[in-house]
Amino acid sequence: MKIETFIQKEVMLPRLKQNGVLIVYDPDRRYQTLCIELASDKYRVIDASESSITSRAIALQTLIEFGQANPLFEGILVYVPAKSPLTDEEKQNDPFAIYGACGAVFP
Fold first, then answer.
1. What stretches of the chain show up as alpha helix (H) in DSSP?
2. pLDDT at residue number 52
């Protein structure tokens, strides 16, 4: 098994399945392709590397849909090409921190 496959199937997918929401902070863009490949009918993937403003709007709308009764998908993965916020102050300044609070953070 390739390391990429292991990360997807043994690390990311279990966290996504268990929590419903997974945010991947990746300042070095090592996991971008792995995250994008997880997009399917079951999992929505929002890539914040193109436009922070647009991806925030899409992520918020997706989270609202996910919170409704009987959503059409099973989870949301948000990919953010930035350093993970560690302190409470950093989390307050991070527009994507809400997804970590709702679910899980990788790495």
1. 3-6, 13-19, 32-37, 52-66, 88-93, 97-102
2. 82
- Asked whether 103 and 61 are in contact (CB, 8 A), the reply is no
pLDDT at residue 49 in the model: 93
Distance between CA atoms of residues 26 and 4, nearest Å: 15
Residue in the block written with tokens 């997807």: 8
More confident residue, 1 or 10: 10
| Cα–Cα dist 49/54, whole Å | 10
8 Cβ contact partners less than 8 Å away, ≥ 6 residues apart: 34, 37, 38
Task: For residue 21, list its beta bridge partners.
Answer: 76
HSE-CB for 10 with a 13 A CA cutoff: 7
- Mean pLDDT, the chain, rounded, equals 94
